[in-house]
Amino acid sequence: YLSKKIYLTVFSFFISYIFSIITYQYIEKFFQEYNYKKFKFYIHIIFLLIILFFSLIYIKYLNENLRSKMRNLIYQTNYLQKNYKWNDRVVFQSIVLNKNKIHDFCTDHSEVFTINQDGLKNECLKHQDYTVLFYLEGNSHTAQYVTAFDELEIIKNLYFKSYKTSDEMRISTEEINKLSKKYQKIFYITDASDVELLNKFKVEIPKINKEIEIILFNSTPFSVNTEPLKCLIKKVDCVNSKKTDWERRDLAKLNTELINLKKKHKNLNVFNSYDILCPETNCPIYNKEKDILYYIDNNHLSMEGARQLKSGLLTFFKVEYSNLKF
């Protein structure tokens, strides 16, 4: 009906005819030939299902408080939650910053939040003073680092801003340049998981104030064949081949690009997140002995996986920026 193509119009009439026969034979005649009382029970069931359907729509999209209560009730009786603390360990939407879930407040689609005098979302900000601000921006591969930053004692001021995919990659240049006039120092941090993403980032770097320190994470190990959650449930050690990952994603080229970029820009540094998580030939996915689940899927750290970066981050900042008082 909406198409200008004649064959689609003809096809739509044909499909309408077929469905008319089906609805007549199996729905209309069904109710025409039988007494209402005979199907009273079924009508009540259908009515209840309709009420249930709209109730679920209301809870899911319109009543956040009730949705949260129902979710908690389900988690209390859920087998995986009771035995493996599933929600705390493997649900990506559980990542918090200053006790606020970033998935609820810090994405492009978040609707419930408040703004402070600096134009930042209060729910995505940990603020103590105007000394050093750590500004994290990126997609889910940057969001996975929030836990490590939020739990570092040296970090008093932390902000996270999310965009959905690498195709939408952007830098809030205007905002961080404006903030650099208020804070003594700003660290702009994002993840560079592939060359394509890095090339998009290169275009924006010259627009950033030279006083702002830029830190790029050189990605985390990715896995193709291993399913981390099954490793947790089965309680078996799981690892991923570093060599395979490097060759498949051409990480040698990525790291060369990062080194060259660091030489070109004095205010840019690279944090070797990859080697901290994978110091040997095999990268841990799940460690049975220590009961550490490093990943929730093939390419995203769990919160406990992200915590493995904390000591490396602490050393990095104290060595590379020893002149700053955190």
Characterise this structure:
- With 326 residues, this protein is of the alpha/beta class.
- Helix content is 47%, strand content 14%.
- A 6-stranded mixed sheet has the order 3-5-4-6-7-9. The chain has a 3-stranded antiparallel sheet with strand order 8-10-11. Strands 1-2 form a two-stranded antiparallel ribbon.
- The protein contains 16 helices and 11 strands.
- It has helices at 6-32, 40-61, 64-77, 79-84, 86-90, 102-105, 140-143, 146-150, 173-179, 195-204, 228-234, 242-249, 251-264, 273-277, 303-306, 310-320; strands spanning 96-97, 100-101, 125-126, 132-138, 157-162, 185-191, 213-217, 238-241, 268-271, 282-287, 292-293.
Topology, element by element:
Blueprint: H1 6-32, H2 40-61, H3 64-77, H4 79-84, H5 86-90, E1 96-97, E2 100-101, H6 102-105, E3 125-126, E4 132-138, H7 140-143, H8 146-150, E5 157-162, H9 173-179, E6 185-191, H10 195-204, E7 213-217, H11 228-234, E8 238-241, H12 242-249, H13 251-264, E9 268-271, H14 273-277, E10 282-287, E11 292-293, H15 303-306, H16 310-320
Parallel strand pairs: 4-5, 4-6, 6-7, 7-9
Antiparallel strand pairs: 1-2, 3-5, 8-10, 10-11
